[in-house]
Amino acid sequence: MHERECHGRQAGSRVRSKPVDRRTVLRATAGGATGVALAGCLSSYETITGSSSDDEETITIGMLAPEPESNFVGRSMAQAAAVAVDELNENGGIDGKEVELAVGDTNGSPLEARRQYQRLILEEGADVTVGMFASEALVNILDDIAEQETIHLTAGAATQIASRRVHEEYDRYKYHFRVGPTNDVDLGRAQINFMNDIATDIGWESIAVLAEDYPWADEPWRIYQEQLADTPVDVVMDERYPPATNDFSEMYDDVVEAGADAVFISTAHTGTDALLDWSYPNRPDPQPQPQPFAFGGIHVPMQLPTYYEDTNGACRYGLGYSAATEESEITEVTPQFVDRYYDTFGTYPQDMGYYTYDSVALFAEAVERTGTTETDELISELEGIEYTGATGAVEFYDTDHVHAHDRVYDVGDDSTVGIYFQWQETDDGEGVREVIWPETYATSEYVTPPWLADG
Fold it and tell me: Signal peptide location in the record (predicted)?
């Protein structure tokens, strides 16, 4: 591995007119080829996993992530936890105790997630668990969390099922807290706020609402149906499309016919195909023409810090929703974490890495404040905690709230969870994710795609 790959800033690529091989991009964004390999910039995987100890002077953090050796999201979660643990140990550990990190590979499977959770608790002696990316995997371990009576801080799954169980059966499920992302209901609320605050200012007066038909998008879709009509934008088309969709050309023909200024999309699994069928570099030869509308929304692949390079710049002008970016300064902690992460791994964290870092740091703060790892005392502390992390202000909904122990979306003073960024290009031809909303965190103004500005 070259020194630049491990310690130098990764460059983006100029927008190219030749089409991108989407099969290659899909493999990359699934985690197999994107970014810096874990073993390359860390001495070994064992450096992250460590081994647990019966020593009472050691605190073990159990980390649950999907395929951390190959999947970009899982790797970012594990590496972010490693950064947090390293920082804690450099500053005396947690309450004077050394901190160790044990990682469980959920392999994207609810069954494996449960097995790994049990291993971390029963074999590794984890004092707390953090992470868990897939909602179905989180749901599958809720009863195990209850039986083990050990705090779990979610950093990945958005399902409201967990918080509803805390609300409905507090004594059994009180051990679960969600540091991020916000639950799927608040995720939908955030998109409505974006439409109210800035959509018409950037020229999105009419939108086509598209969402892949996966369970994670059910609640945002319900909120779109109920609340978008009350925003300043005009919804001229809406469609839940099948999970197997890999060709958006006919759908986009309908968008054009409807006269939408922008496609507002909610996508995780199908995001790259949707992007490539929109973007200018991938229009059919011999005379490529850009789609006559803007593009953005909840687009998980665009959260990858290497996505500009992965797509040969095809994501330029696209909008995405995320916890933070390498350019953002949500709080003073954000750039500190980003710089430390980059210095260690030679790349930037993905969305879930920010939440994971905050989860470990938050647990450490709660232990420091209480002076104990006793579960009930920590639960009481977390329920009333006000903490500032890389993703902003962290507070949790009260136990009488239907989403008990979920992170509060809007804690006031213009402090919300999540930002909208736009992939832009620097004068040197590098891709960069500039924050455009909320205004409090903005690092740049929205750039209208030139083929729309000229129109």
Answer: none
Tell me what pLDDT residue 410 has: 84
Rounded distance between C-alpha atoms, residue 320 and residue 434, angstroms: 10
C-alpha distances in angstroms, 40 versus 2, 317, 366? 10, 32, 33
Q: How far is it, in rounded angstroms, from Cα 169 to Cα 163?
A: 10
Whose structure tokens read 């004092």?
127
DSSP three-state, residue 59:
strand
> Residues 432, 287: one domain?
yes
Distance CA 17, CA 9 (A): 25
87 and 115 housed in the same domain: yes
pLDDT at 77: 97
* Residue whose structure tokens are 């409905």: 168
Are 231 and 152 within one domain?
A: no
Task: Tell me the pLDDT of the chain averaged across its residues.
Answer: 88
Task: Determine the 3-state secondary structure of 455 from DSSP.
Answer: coil
In this structure, is residue 157 part of a structural domain?
yes
62 φ, ψ (degrees, to nearest 5): -95, 125
Rg (CA), the chain: 21
Beta bridge partners of 101: 61
* CATH number of domain containing 298: 3.40.50.2300
Handedness of CA 376, 380, 386, 391 (dihedral sign): positive
User: Considering its fold, how many domains does the chain have in total?
Assistant: 2
> What interhelical angle do 333-345 and 351-370 show, nearest 10?
120
Say yes or no: 193 and 290 in one domain. yes
DSSP run (H or E) holding 115: helix 110-122
Give domain status of residue 79, yes or no.
yes
Domain identity same for 65 and 88: yes
Residue 243 has pLDDT above 60, yes or no: yes
- Looking at the fold, whether 437 and 296 belong to one and the same domain comes out as yes
Write b or e for each residue in 108-144: b if 16 or more Cβ atoms lie within 10 A of its Cβ, otherwise e: bbbebbbbbbeebbeebbbbbbbbbbbbebbbbbbeb
Q: Distance between CA atoms of 43 and 1, rounded to whole angstroms?
A: 13
pLDDT band at 451 (very low <50, low <70, confident <90, very high): confident
